[in-house]
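Action item from last week, closing it out:
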Amino acid sequence: MSAARAVVLVSGGLDSATVLAIARAAGRDCYALSFDYGQRHRIELAAAARVAAALGAREHRTMRIDFAGIGGSALTDRSIAVPETASAGIPVTYVPARNTVFLALALGWAEVLGAAEIHVGVNAVDYSGYPDCRPEFIAAFERLARLATRAGVEGGALEICAPLIGLSKAGIIARGVELGVDYGLTISCYQPDESGRACGRCDSCRLRRAGFAAAGIADPTVYQPGR
């Protein structure tokens, strides 16, 4: 396995862009992986391509998955409205098994590449309460990766790197700015319009906007009129 190679999950959002910049700054050859999973905000894939190119990914692949066939989330089922006010508990924007499947596919590509690391932008501080963004989940998946792969069985140690997991959104933004991330290339909104303008009302938009304000950094997001 190569310690210089890393698979980086890149959604097109703020967090994953920061993770890609962190991995690059650490001297990794970055292989960016995105997913077209039936999300209603599919426009984020264009942002992922922009981010991967701008931050020097060695390769960028987009894989297709049919999470819409499972449903159960406002991000994949248009009959479920994206909430525009904060709510208690796990919100309906949670996509069942999403990070488990994403990491499993990243694990497969890492084995083929001989990469020793998978980098993911999960966060357990300023986030929406998703169970697959917690440190316990990342630690459990890393144990699974070592049990379920040829590399693990043969003594190679694959690491799941989640450098943002303990940072606030403001801290993430500040770190990205230090590394030269252009957040104007990214999209975080769950329901952008066809031009890619953010709604300014969904949970992801609220967290993003508050993060820029707390960091004292101008928000480059283009919002829909009146938002």
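Closing note: DSSP finds seven helices and five strands in the chain.
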